[in-house]
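Troubleshooting: if your tokenizer reports a length mismatch, compare your output against this known-good record of 503 residues.
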Amino acid sequence: MIPSKNIIGLILGPLLFTIILLFFEADGLSFEAKCILASTTWMAVWWVTECVPISVTALLPIVLFPLTGGMDLATTTAAYGHKLVYLFVGGFIIALAIEKWHLHKRLALNIIRLTGSNKSKVILGFMLATAFLSMWISNTATSIMILPVGLAIISQLKDDPKTIENENETFGKSLMIAIAYSASIGGMATLIGTPPNMVLAGVVEESYGIKLNMFDWMKFGVPLSSFLLIICWVYLTKVAFKFKNEEFSAGRDEILRQIKKLGKFSNEEIKVLIIFSLTAISWILRGYLEDYIIPVLESITYISFDWMNNIDDTIIAIFFAVILFIIPTKNHKTEKTLLVWNDTIKLPWGILILFGGGMAIASAFGKSGLALWIADLLQNLDGISLFLIILIIVTSVNLLTEVTSNMATTAMLLPVLVTIALAIEVHPYFLLISATLAASCAFMLPISTPPNAVVFGSGLLKIEDMFKKGVWMNIISIITITLVVYYTLPYVFEMTAKLIPTS
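Known-good structure output:
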């Protein structure tokens, strides 16, 4: 039986589309803009209700935009082949190699091992490992991988005769929640760490022609993610959960057992680690290459290195992804190279399509004139303080993401926020980055994020547990993001509040 929510969504989306298309008229709204408005409304309803898979909804522009006359087919479909799509393809392929050869598990276990046997420190180890992996691998895959390790630790505590009654239950709940939260927080640190960040990069380039590269984002994302992670750890271990007996010797023994089980670094692990490291280093150093290294080389050699200026994050990602299909394995009977084409079946194609749909909307908003029309409507926001606007955006997106997909939310809202920034004459980064970060900070419900759903599936948590602890974490994240964006963003990105960005 189809849920009533899905039935309502299935009907309401096309109905609102038809009403807007046939009957809605407004001063300054062109026919093309009205078509885009109607189509986007249909998509928004289906995204919110999830009456069909959100990635399927993301394909609607290919049908609706050309047929209504909002935007031609060639321009619409080009958005799905945006160069950033291939940045994420490359990043996801590298992540596949890390998972395939179990490098992620080795990295995680060793990070956890370094934190000691104290319960709070064990949780810190899990959070650091989860957050680090989530920077490069999807937060869903990260939480799925870390979960069995966490359950093994919990079982050791349960079997420890020195354990105080019900202490295992408290530790189990805190560890499960810690894994979920740190997976979401860690993904905020890099552009490829979480889908909302991908949407942000695409909207910024589509709207302003600015390439938001990996290093630019990490300058802001890594400190924020680290700060929020520390606050989260303190909250979970000192406020949300309190341990009567902090010492936990069995936990260290279990970690060492699992590390021993992995054995020595395999030849394949070493190769993948080298490629992963080179990719990350290349992303980070690319800005320095353009600004400092190339001018020095040209001054010394009197040779033009202009071609090196064409190197960007997408080229780096695809280059190293291709390398993984070339480098041979050692003494492996079935796999001749580090990756084979069949491995790409595991790529998150739905996310890539969803990103393409978001790019199509962003492009259509600008080309149809819908963005300017919305901006005119929002002129009355000009009198509200920027701090309050940021707070409202962060709070609204945070609550909305509790019941909707964070990528669908950002794909839907970011083009609108571009126009709001234009209307109130503030740098759009304040609004766009606020919404993007808030979309990764939904902590209250199992359905809010995939990591929440993964740990809830452990059976150790009730919805009540997640809601009570998540409410306060939501409040903490709202306050943190608002303050950080308002006070530090201008310094990190070297911008002023009233300056509109240019490429």
